[in-house]
Amino acid sequence: MKPSFDSIFMNLATDLAKRSHCVKAHVGAVLTRDTRIISIGYNGPPAGTHNCDEEWPGQGCARDSKGSCSLALHAEENAILYAVKSGAKLEGATLYTTLSPCIACARLIYSAGITKVYFDKSYAEYKGIGSDEGVDFLNRFGVPTVRFTED
Question: Considering its fold, how many domains does the chain have in total?
Answer without folding.
Answer: 1
